[in-house]
Design goal:
With about 325 residues, the chain is mainly alpha-helical. Helix content is about 65%, strand content about 0%. The protein is flat, with a radius of gyration of 22 Å.
Length: about 325
């Protein structure tokens, strides 16, 4: 159930027990988030350096060996691709650790008589399930010769995992699973939801730009039959629209005296967004050098994380709203 407050409310107030996950458990979740964001960047480097077929088979790097071997025609590209595959092992270890930490935390709560938080356990399973799903998808990507649809699905799944693990990190730091309390005006909350949807379109458009342009892979890689310039400008138009909406939301947050958390999150997102936009135009007008594009992908990942963070910052859990706001919202005292 979601409670909408007619006016902005502060996050101050008594909490209903401190049901936060232990600090060590939350650090495991944060490590998963960083790793999920990191593999997006390393995956982009693989593609930008035309190393996607550095290991031309899957699950082995060559037909006979699971690791790169001397004499491969792929030269140094084999090490770039194999290195990215090794990072999947790191992701798997961290994902197992996250689920184990969540199960330990659930048992601790049960033994201590604390309120159970099954949502945390389910969310902690997301990194493991997502990483397992990525493994065959990565194989399909290689075996289909870097088909742009497979590559794009690989990227978008990673972005989805970043969003869900961000939710896990936030939920683990909240006092409990009480009903959501919206901490900003309804109009602002709706605007942030629209902004999140626009950012989803930005990710898809960015994926189409790459799949249609020079960084889709090496000369063996199939490109989408789209005009790269047209898709690039469409991508840029959505970005400009998003920045304009975000700037308006930031003004509205300050004008309505919104809590510090969403205002700060919006400010950080705007700074990251402007940096990403600058790099995006830089890569376009400099002929898309792969190093600049890699920075652009890195910032795009940060912007997506910051967007989800802003969406989560517009509401809170485990905090009792002030009595006046409760009465106005029709919440029994």
């Amino acid at each position: 159930m979601t409670t909408h407050l007619p006016d902005p409310v502060t996050t101050a107030g008594p909490t209903v027990g401190d049901g936060r996950a232990p600090l060590a458990v939350r650090r495991v979740y944060v490590a998963n988030l960083v790793a999920q964001m990191g593999i997006i960047v390393t995956g982009a480097v693989v593609r930008l350096t035309s190393s996607g077929l550095g290991c031309p088979t899957w699950p082995r790097c060559t037909g006979e060996s699971i690791v790169p071997v001397d004499g491969q025609t792929e030269a140094w590209h084999k090490y770039v691709e194999f290195g990215n595959r090794l990072l999947t092992v790191v992701l798997m270890v961290l994902a197992v650790a996250a689920l184990a930490a969540a199960l330990w935390d659930a048992r601790r709560r049960r033994d201590s008589g604390l309120a159970a938080r099954p949502a945390l356990t389910w969310l902690a399973a997301v990194p493991l399930l997502g990483t397992v799903a990525q493994i065959p998808l990565g194989g399909i990507t290689v075996l289909t010769g870097l088909n742009p649809i497979a590559v794009g699905s690989h990227l978008l799944l990673s972005m989805g995992l970043v969003a869900l693990v961000t939710v896990l990190v936030r939920r683990a730091g909240e006092p409990g699973d009480q009903p959501v309390v919206v901490a900003v005006r309804r109009e602002i909350r709706l605007g942030v939801v629209v902004l999140t949807a626009l950012l989803s379109l930005v990710l898809v458009a960015g994926m189409l730009v790459t799949a249609s342009g020079p960084h889709a892979g090496d000369e063996r890689t199939h490109r989408l039959g789209l005009d790269p310039q047209t898709i690039a400008w469409l991508h840029a138009d959505i970005v400009v629209l998003s920045i304009g909406l975000l700037a308006g939301l930031l003004v509205a947050l300050r004008a309505t005296g919104a809590p510090e958390r969403p205002t700060r999150a919006a400010t950080h997102l705007l700074a990251a967004f402007l940096a990403q936009g600058f790099v995006g135009y830089l890569q376009y007008f400099t002929g898309e050098p792969w190093a600049v594009v890699a920075v652009h992908v890195t910032l795009a990942t940060v912007v997506w994380w910051a967007t989800v963070r802003l969406l989560l910052a517009t509401r809170t859990r485990g905090v009792v709203a002030p009595a006046r706001a409760q009465r106005e919202a029709g919440i029994p005292a």
